[in-house]
Amino acid sequence: MRLSELNTGEKGVIVKVTGRGAFRKRIIEMGFIRGKEVEVIQNAPLKDPVHYKVMGYDVSLRRNEAALIEVVSPKDFAEGSLNNHTAGQQAFQKSILSNSGEDLHTIALQKGKTINVALVGNPNSGKTSLFNFASGAREHVGNYGGVTVDAKEGTFHLNGYTFKIVDLPGTYSLSAYSPEELYVRKHLNEEHPDVVINVVDASNLERNLYLTSQLIDMDVRMVIALNIYDDLERRGNKFDHESLSRMIGIPIIPTISKNGFGIENLFNRIIQVYEENDPVIRHIHINYGEDLEKAITNVRNKLVEQCDISKDISKRYLSIKLLEGDWEVENFVKSLSGSEVILEECRKNIAQIEDILKEDVETAFTNARYGFISGALLETFEPNKIKEATKTQIIDLFVTHKLLGFPIFILFMWIMFEATFRLGEYPMTWIEDLVEFIGNSLRGVMPEGPLKDLLIDGIITGVGGVIVFLPNILILYLFISFMEDSGYMARAAFIMDKIMHKMGLHGKSFIPLVMGFGCNVPAIMASRTIENRNSRMITMLINPLMSCSARFPVYVLLAGAFFPANAGTVVLILYATGILLAVLMAKIFKRFLFQEEDVPFVMELPPYRMPTVKSIFIHMWEKAKQYLKKMGGIILVASIVIWFLGYFPLNHEIAETFDEQIALVESGSLSEEEKEETIEEIERLKTVILQQNSYIGRLGQQIQPVLQPLGFDWKISVSLLTGMAAKEVVVSTLSVLYTGEEEESQALTERLQQDRDAAGNPVFTPLVALSLMLFVLIYFPCIATITAISKEAHSWKWGLFVVIYTCVLAWLVSFIVYQTGSFL
């Protein structure tokens, strides 16, 4: 709890002082240090400030200052902690409540060894890799900007200290330009991490240190992780990081996050910084030059005179942001008393600077920061004089070539789909055999009845019909992970930028769209990296047209059954169709819904890095867990519900009628071969009639007229209806609906190929299969995707809009394909 929460007469033991800068230093010097007891003596008549006693003398603090001091008190345990612990811990805490302050002192010292750390750095600086290595988390790492689109939390223990680590989104600066920048800045200002780890890419110092200069302005306690240090050494560059460390007053620790080099040293140094005994750390002011410094001083003086601003916010930092025209800081100042005087002073100084320097103030600050960085590196960094073509430059000669770039990209995609089918075929067969073995084993030992039918025809058939595609999903993610981790994804965005621009989109939109091949939900979240709202909205609205891995089992099933010789090519055509439709819809949305001009295309092309086998397999395992979790969740429930609706009501009269016909055939004079064929046909008709009269059959027949022009019967219609929850359920539904007495040992592909309607015509043809795959590609995104769109767009109307337009578009495309194919 905070010191400001203690009532008059209550005591607490200090855990830590948060905040930053001169205030924090002053408050510690006054005796507010860890382990010291503090007592609330009285409040001022207006409840502020508050009179405290610490270390035997009296001191007053304002409430907003006391809120920056964390304490532990008996009230802490009595009101909260005691209710959330085991019996042993409760007994221990009760003893604390009944004893003197010594036990609280012990607890305060223990709690004081918890260090809150924020990871801040540029995209591609290895920030998330460092987070993964330190915390043991398995957050996927991609070699392009915007992978971390939200804060991730982890815990790390070292030398008796507990580090609570927050991995913040990658950002190039702390302006108010993008959602990531605002998110990082808000976290640093409101959560007050004890120490910030500024992850700096050692191979790109000048650009990465720009963010460092802004963190210096914010006056945060910081340690620099000089990451990817092996790349700096491999290039033959020399960098005296210890001299730079002393120059800027920030400890700099070389690290290689992918193999853990320097990580322990980094966290040991954080302990020193946290405990206020680091020999290097000190706060410096970046000198912006006479004109800018004069303006900063003028605005800062007005802030001090006019406003009662919390002492944990740097007045110098606020002054700089006001002069830069930062809209968020302006809105903050407008909420304070005396804001008009401050803003008028700000406007006056901005006009003077622009008149003297002949450039806008934001550019002046940017140039000054880079000047500071250049000067610091001039004294500490010596680049290798021998220029050699890097592997990145050599590879880019081919993959970004104006003639070779597109063929290489298309070839890579084709190889991905072909490998998914060809390599996935063998483990698919093994899993099919295993599912069949389990079903046959249970069939032989369980008594007849609904429970047996539920277990075998419902659960095992439904879930087993989907789980066989796990190898294909893993192979697909193997390729996608390689594209992300190697840096090729950014090149794909580069070569696609002109096409994206013709669509009215930003080149960065291509990355979320390609990510949609894996899963639409994180892809929609990744669209946050697009600065322009209109481009971001269009990207989110067309992302469901990117064929996610959940649709892949449907493609594998139908393409493998009806296009066995060209399955990979057919799936590539489906993915290309999704892209083309996305282009069309983006043009329409740009024309009628989002007409504003886009922002310029600015995106980093990171160096190529060979992904580690560990990172790729961790990514694949995480996706496998998600897929298996679906098996035990929504697909299991859907399979049971579909089986129930298809099994009931039990129509004994129809069954008995067909049984009588079978008995007549068996007692007739037909040959054995003719009897077998006739009985097989009667059994088939019996299954068809019983299913048509079941609950799910009646439901399917109600919606069939809408989908019949697309070539779909009632079974297909039902599978599309249930597939709205998750696209894998389409396969699960077909597996349950296509179980028959004579077909139970057959693969689902064979059952689909052999299925006939009441007139004996095949239900599935290559044309119907193609129409169905196109419909599944386009229609109703899963519930999770709709939720993600609604959340990111801050309105459910956009989620509903996506549902409507995708269903209408799916119907139109499938109708055109099926009717055209039937005519030809």
Percent of sequence in beta strands: 5-15%
Choose one word for the global shape: elongated
Head-to-tail CA distance between termini: 76 Å
The average pLDDT score comes to 79
Strands across the major sheet, in which order?
7-8-6-9-10-12
Assembly type of the chains comes to single chain
Task: Give unreliable regions as ranges.
Answer: 80-100, 142-146, 740-745
Q: What class do helices, strands and sheet pairing give?
A: alpha/beta
Number of helices: 37
What does this structure look like?
With 824 residues, this protein is α/β, with parallel strands linked by helices. The protein is built from 37 helices and 13 strands. A 6-stranded mixed beta sheet has the order 7-8-6-9-10-12, sandwiched between helices. The chain has a 5-stranded antiparallel beta sheet with strand order 4-3-2-1-5. Strands 11-13 form a two-stranded antiparallel ribbon. A hairpin with a 2-residue loop joins β3 and β4. The radius of gyration is 33 Å and the shape is elongated.
Summarize the structure.
Helices cover 61% and strands 8% of the residues. It has 824 residues and is α/β, with parallel strands linked by helices. The chain has a 6-stranded mixed beta sheet with strand order 7-8-6-9-10-12, sandwiched between helices. Strands 4-3-2-1-5 form a 5-stranded antiparallel beta sheet.
Features:
single chain, 824 residues, alpha/beta, five-stranded antiparallel sheet, 61% helix
List the helices and strands and how they pair.
Elements: E1 11-17, H1 21-29, E2 37-43, E3 50-54, E4 57-61, H2 63-66, E5 69-72, H3 74-79, H4 87-98, H5 101-111, E6 114-121, H6 127-135, E7 152-158, E8 161-167, H7 179-191, E9 195-201, H8 205-218, E10 222-227, H9 229-234, E11 238-239, H10 241-248, E12 252-254, H11 263-274, H12 290-306, H13 315-323, H14 327-334, H15 339-357, H16 361-380, E13 381-382, H17 391-399, H18 405-445, H19 450-467, H20 470-486, H21 488-502, H22 510-515, H23 520-526, H24 533-542, H25 552-562, H26 567-592, H27 613-632, H28 634-647, H29 652-667, H30 672-692, H31 695-707, H32 714-722, H33 728-737, H34 748-754, H35 766-778, H36 783-793, H37 796-823
Parallel strand pairs: 6-8, 6-9, 9-10, 10-12
Antiparallel strand pairs: 1-2, 1-5, 2-3, 3-4, 7-8, 11-13
Helix pairs in contact: 8-16, 10-16, 12-13, 12-15, 18-19, 18-20, 18-26, 19-28, 19-33, 20-27, 23-36, 24-26, 25-26, 25-34, 25-35, 26-35, 28-33, 29-30, 31-32, 32-33, 35-37, 36-37
